[in-house]
Amino acid sequence: MEETTAQKKKFMIRVRNLRKEYRLKDDTVVALKRINLDIEQGEICCIFGTSGSGKSTLLNQLAGLEKPTFGDVYIRGVPVTRLSERELAEFRQKHIGFVFQSYNLLPFMNAAENVAVPLMFRGVGKRERMKKAKAILKKVGLINRLTHYPKQMSGGQQQRVGIARAFVAHPDVVFADEPTGNLDSKTTIEVMEMIKNFARRFDQTIVLVTHDPELAKYADRIVTLVDGRIVSDTKNDTVRGEANEQAI
Ligand SMILES: Nc1ncnc2c1ncn2[C@@H]1O[C@H](COP(=O)(O)OP(=O)(O)O)[C@@H](O)[C@H]1O
Ligand SMILES: [Mg+2]
Protein backbone atom coordinates (compact mmCIF):
# COMPACT_ATOMS: atom_id res chain seq x y z
CA MET A 1 0.00 0.00 0.00
CA GLU A 2 1.12 3.50 -0.79
CA GLU A 3 0.97 4.66 2.82
CA THR A 4 3.07 1.84 4.19
CA THR A 5 5.84 2.67 1.75
CA ALA A 6 5.56 6.31 2.72
CA GLN A 7 5.89 5.50 6.42
CA LYS A 8 9.04 3.50 5.81
CA LYS A 9 10.63 6.36 3.92
CA LYS A 10 12.57 8.93 5.85
CA PHE A 11 12.15 12.65 5.56
CA MET A 12 15.00 14.12 3.57
CA ILE A 13 13.95 17.73 4.14
CA ARG A 14 12.09 19.19 7.11
CA VAL A 15 11.05 22.82 7.36
CA ARG A 16 9.87 24.29 10.66
CA ASN A 17 8.11 27.64 11.08
CA LEU A 18 10.12 29.28 8.37
CA ARG A 19 9.83 33.01 7.89
CA LYS A 20 11.78 35.27 5.59
CA GLU A 21 11.64 39.03 5.64
CA TYR A 22 13.52 41.32 3.32
CA ARG A 23 14.19 44.70 4.91
CA LEU A 24 14.19 47.49 2.39
CA LYS A 25 14.76 51.18 3.02
CA ASP A 26 11.41 52.00 4.56
CA ASP A 27 9.57 48.81 3.90
CA THR A 28 9.69 45.15 4.92
CA VAL A 29 8.66 42.43 2.49
CA VAL A 30 7.53 39.25 4.19
CA ALA A 31 8.39 36.73 1.47
CA LEU A 32 7.68 33.56 3.49
CA LYS A 33 5.30 33.11 6.40
CA ARG A 34 5.20 30.17 8.75
CA ILE A 35 6.22 27.48 6.29
CA ASN A 36 6.10 23.90 7.58
CA LEU A 37 6.94 21.15 5.15
CA ASP A 38 8.35 17.62 5.19
CA ILE A 39 9.70 16.11 2.00
CA GLU A 40 10.45 12.40 1.80
CA GLN A 41 13.53 10.81 0.34
CA GLY A 42 12.86 10.03 -3.32
CA GLU A 43 9.98 12.47 -3.58
CA ILE A 44 9.70 14.84 -6.51
CA CYS A 45 8.12 17.84 -4.85
CA CYS A 46 6.97 20.80 -6.88
CA ILE A 47 6.83 24.24 -5.27
CA PHE A 48 4.19 25.89 -7.39
CA GLY A 49 2.90 29.46 -7.52
CA THR A 50 2.66 32.64 -9.52
CA SER A 51 5.55 35.07 -9.89
CA GLY A 52 6.33 36.75 -6.58
CA SER A 53 4.66 34.06 -4.44
CA GLY A 54 7.94 33.19 -2.71
CA LYS A 55 9.08 30.06 -4.56
CA SER A 56 12.68 31.09 -5.17
CA THR A 57 12.93 32.51 -1.67
CA LEU A 58 11.81 29.15 -0.27
CA LEU A 59 14.30 27.27 -2.42
CA ASN A 60 17.09 29.62 -1.33
CA GLN A 61 16.31 28.92 2.34
CA LEU A 62 16.07 25.16 1.74
CA ALA A 63 19.43 25.07 0.00
CA GLY A 64 21.04 27.29 2.63
CA LEU A 65 21.77 30.03 0.09
CA GLU A 66 20.10 32.56 2.37
CA LYS A 67 19.48 32.65 6.12
CA PRO A 68 15.83 32.79 7.18
CA THR A 69 14.55 35.46 9.55
CA PHE A 70 13.05 32.75 11.73
CA GLY A 71 12.65 28.99 11.70
CA ASP A 72 14.78 26.05 10.60
CA VAL A 73 15.48 23.78 7.67
CA TYR A 74 16.89 20.29 8.18
CA ILE A 75 18.33 18.19 5.38
CA ARG A 76 19.22 14.63 6.38
CA GLY A 77 18.61 15.83 9.94
CA VAL A 78 21.30 18.53 9.63
CA PRO A 79 20.08 22.05 10.54
CA VAL A 80 21.34 23.82 7.43
CA THR A 81 19.98 27.13 8.72
CA ARG A 82 22.48 26.94 11.58
CA LEU A 83 25.62 26.02 9.69
CA SER A 84 28.44 28.46 9.06
CA GLU A 85 29.18 29.47 5.47
CA ARG A 86 32.10 27.09 5.40
CA GLU A 87 30.08 24.16 6.76
CA LEU A 88 27.29 24.98 4.34
CA ALA A 89 29.59 24.98 1.34
CA GLU A 90 30.91 21.58 2.36
CA PHE A 91 27.41 20.25 3.00
CA ARG A 92 26.21 21.43 -0.42
CA GLN A 93 29.17 19.88 -2.18
CA LYS A 94 28.42 16.52 -0.58
CA HIS A 95 24.66 16.36 -0.63
CA ILE A 96 23.11 18.89 -3.00
CA GLY A 97 22.86 19.48 -6.73
CA PHE A 98 21.37 22.46 -8.56
CA VAL A 99 19.72 22.96 -11.93
CA PHE A 100 19.28 26.64 -12.82
CA GLN A 101 17.00 28.34 -15.31
CA SER A 102 20.01 30.12 -16.81
CA TYR A 103 22.11 26.90 -16.79
CA ASN A 104 25.01 28.60 -14.95
CA LEU A 105 27.72 26.66 -16.74
CA LEU A 106 31.26 27.95 -16.45
CA PRO A 107 31.98 29.63 -19.81
CA PHE A 108 35.71 28.78 -19.82
CA MET A 109 35.10 25.07 -19.31
CA ASN A 110 33.84 22.62 -21.91
CA ALA A 111 30.86 20.31 -21.33
CA ALA A 112 32.86 17.47 -19.78
CA GLU A 113 34.85 19.83 -17.54
CA ASN A 114 31.67 21.55 -16.35
CA VAL A 115 30.09 18.21 -15.46
CA ALA A 116 33.22 17.11 -13.62
CA VAL A 117 33.26 20.12 -11.25
CA PRO A 118 31.17 18.55 -8.43
CA LEU A 119 33.43 15.47 -8.53
CA MET A 120 36.49 17.68 -8.14
CA PHE A 121 34.98 19.12 -4.94
CA ARG A 122 34.56 15.58 -3.70
CA GLY A 123 38.18 14.79 -4.26
CA VAL A 124 37.73 12.43 -7.21
CA GLY A 125 40.92 12.20 -9.33
CA LYS A 126 41.04 13.71 -12.80
CA ARG A 127 40.91 10.49 -14.84
CA GLU A 128 37.96 9.16 -12.87
CA ARG A 129 36.20 12.53 -13.06
CA MET A 130 36.46 12.70 -16.82
CA LYS A 131 35.33 9.08 -17.14
CA LYS A 132 32.22 9.74 -15.04
CA ALA A 133 31.50 13.03 -16.78
CA LYS A 134 31.65 11.35 -20.18
CA ALA A 135 29.43 8.48 -19.04
CA ILE A 136 26.70 10.78 -17.80
CA LEU A 137 26.97 13.09 -20.81
CA LYS A 138 26.41 10.02 -22.94
CA LYS A 139 23.23 9.30 -20.98
CA VAL A 140 21.90 12.78 -21.69
CA GLY A 141 22.67 12.35 -25.40
CA LEU A 142 25.73 14.61 -25.60
CA ILE A 143 28.55 12.19 -26.26
CA ASN A 144 29.48 14.20 -29.36
CA ARG A 145 29.54 17.51 -27.45
CA LEU A 146 32.12 16.68 -24.76
CA THR A 147 34.59 19.37 -25.78
CA HIS A 148 32.06 22.01 -26.75
CA TYR A 149 31.95 25.19 -24.71
CA PRO A 150 28.61 26.49 -23.37
CA LYS A 151 28.32 29.22 -26.01
CA GLN A 152 28.74 26.58 -28.73
CA MET A 153 25.62 24.74 -27.56
CA SER A 154 21.88 25.35 -27.76
CA GLY A 155 19.87 26.15 -24.64
CA GLY A 156 18.54 22.61 -24.49
CA GLN A 157 22.04 21.16 -24.80
CA GLN A 158 23.36 23.49 -22.11
CA GLN A 159 20.58 22.45 -19.79
CA ARG A 160 21.36 18.79 -20.43
CA VAL A 161 24.93 19.56 -19.38
CA GLY A 162 23.45 21.31 -16.33
CA ILE A 163 21.46 18.20 -15.46
CA ALA A 164 24.49 15.95 -15.93
CA ARG A 165 26.43 18.24 -13.59
CA ALA A 166 23.64 18.23 -11.00
CA PHE A 167 23.42 14.44 -10.93
CA VAL A 168 26.97 13.24 -11.63
CA ALA A 169 27.93 12.94 -7.96
CA HIS A 170 24.57 11.39 -6.93
CA PRO A 171 23.56 14.08 -4.42
CA ASP A 172 20.71 13.34 -2.00
CA VAL A 173 18.75 16.39 -3.12
CA VAL A 174 18.58 18.28 -6.40
CA PHE A 175 17.05 21.75 -6.40
CA ALA A 176 15.70 22.98 -9.72
CA ASP A 177 14.38 26.54 -10.08
CA GLU A 178 12.36 26.93 -13.30
CA PRO A 179 14.76 24.51 -15.04
CA THR A 180 12.96 24.75 -18.37
CA GLY A 181 12.15 28.46 -18.22
CA ASN A 182 14.22 29.23 -21.31
CA LEU A 183 13.39 26.12 -23.35
CA ASP A 184 10.78 25.24 -25.98
CA SER A 185 8.04 22.74 -25.17
CA LYS A 186 9.66 19.71 -26.82
CA THR A 187 12.97 20.31 -25.04
CA THR A 188 11.09 20.94 -21.80
CA ILE A 189 9.62 17.43 -21.94
CA GLU A 190 13.05 15.89 -22.63
CA VAL A 191 14.67 17.81 -19.80
CA MET A 192 11.94 16.95 -17.28
CA GLU A 193 12.04 13.28 -18.19
CA MET A 194 15.81 13.25 -17.74
CA ILE A 195 15.58 14.85 -14.30
CA LYS A 196 12.88 12.41 -13.33
CA ASN A 197 14.66 9.32 -14.62
CA PHE A 198 17.88 10.17 -12.81
CA ALA A 199 16.03 10.87 -9.57
CA ARG A 200 14.04 7.65 -9.69
CA ARG A 201 17.07 5.57 -10.49
CA PHE A 202 18.93 6.64 -7.34
CA ASP A 203 15.95 7.44 -5.08
CA GLN A 204 16.97 11.09 -5.05
CA THR A 205 14.79 13.91 -3.78
CA ILE A 206 13.89 16.71 -6.17
CA VAL A 207 12.56 20.11 -5.25
CA LEU A 208 11.22 21.62 -8.44
CA VAL A 209 10.21 25.28 -8.43
CA THR A 210 7.89 26.44 -11.19
CA HIS A 211 4.96 28.64 -12.15
CA ASP A 212 4.13 26.29 -15.05
CA PRO A 213 1.29 23.77 -14.48
CA GLU A 214 2.74 21.57 -17.26
CA LEU A 215 5.94 21.10 -15.27
CA ALA A 216 4.07 20.46 -12.02
CA LYS A 217 2.60 17.36 -13.69
CA TYR A 218 5.99 15.63 -13.39
CA ALA A 219 5.98 15.90 -9.61
CA ASP A 220 4.68 13.38 -7.05
CA ARG A 221 3.42 16.24 -4.96
CA ILE A 222 2.47 19.84 -5.56
CA VAL A 223 2.86 22.44 -2.82
CA THR A 224 1.24 25.72 -3.81
CA LEU A 225 2.39 29.08 -2.47
CA VAL A 226 0.36 32.27 -2.45
CA ASP A 227 1.93 35.39 -0.91
CA GLY A 228 4.55 33.37 0.94
CA ARG A 229 2.17 30.86 2.49
CA ILE A 230 1.37 27.26 1.63
CA VAL A 231 -2.25 27.23 0.49
CA SER A 232 -2.41 23.64 -0.73
CA ASP A 233 -0.35 20.48 -0.63
CA THR A 234 -1.59 17.67 -2.84
CA LYS A 235 -0.40 14.31 -4.11
CA ASN A 236 -0.27 14.10 -7.88
CA ASP A 237 -2.17 10.97 -8.92
CA THR A 238 -1.37 11.18 -12.60
CA VAL A 239 2.37 11.65 -12.48
CA ARG A 240 3.82 12.29 -15.89
CA GLY A 241 7.07 10.98 -17.27
CA GLU A 242 7.24 7.50 -15.67
CA ALA A 243 7.08 5.60 -18.93
CA ASN A 244 10.73 6.11 -19.83
CA GLU A 245 12.09 4.99 -16.50
CA GLN A 246 14.26 2.35 -18.14
CA ALA A 247 15.68 4.84 -20.61
CA ILE A 248 18.57 6.03 -18.43
N1 LIG B 1 16.47 40.15 -2.23
C1 LIG B 1 15.22 40.61 -2.10
N2 LIG B 1 14.99 41.81 -1.55
C2 LIG B 1 13.74 42.27 -1.39
N3 LIG B 1 12.62 41.59 -1.74
C3 LIG B 1 12.79 40.39 -2.30
C4 LIG B 1 14.09 39.82 -2.52
N4 LIG B 1 13.93 38.59 -3.09
C5 LIG B 1 12.60 38.42 -3.22
N5 LIG B 1 11.92 39.49 -2.75
C6 LIG B 1 10.45 39.64 -2.72
O1 LIG B 1 9.91 38.48 -2.10
C7 LIG B 1 8.74 38.05 -2.78
C8 LIG B 1 8.93 36.63 -3.29
O2 LIG B 1 9.90 36.62 -4.31
P1 LIG B 1 10.40 35.30 -5.02
O3 LIG B 1 10.72 34.29 -4.00
O4 LIG B 1 11.50 35.67 -5.96
O5 LIG B 1 9.11 34.84 -5.83
P2 LIG B 1 8.93 33.77 -7.00
O6 LIG B 1 10.20 32.99 -7.11
O7 LIG B 1 7.76 32.96 -6.58
O8 LIG B 1 8.64 34.56 -8.23
C9 LIG B 1 8.47 39.06 -3.88
O9 LIG B 1 7.55 40.00 -3.38
C10 LIG B 1 9.83 39.68 -4.09
O10 LIG B 1 9.71 40.98 -4.57
MG1 LIG C 1 11.48 32.69 -8.78
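^ adenosine-5'-diphosphate complex. Residues 43-83+99-236 form a domain with the Rossmann fold fold (CATH 3.40.50.300). Strands lie at 11-23, 28-40, 44-48, 70-75, 78-79, 96-100, 173-177, 205-210, 221-226, 229-235.
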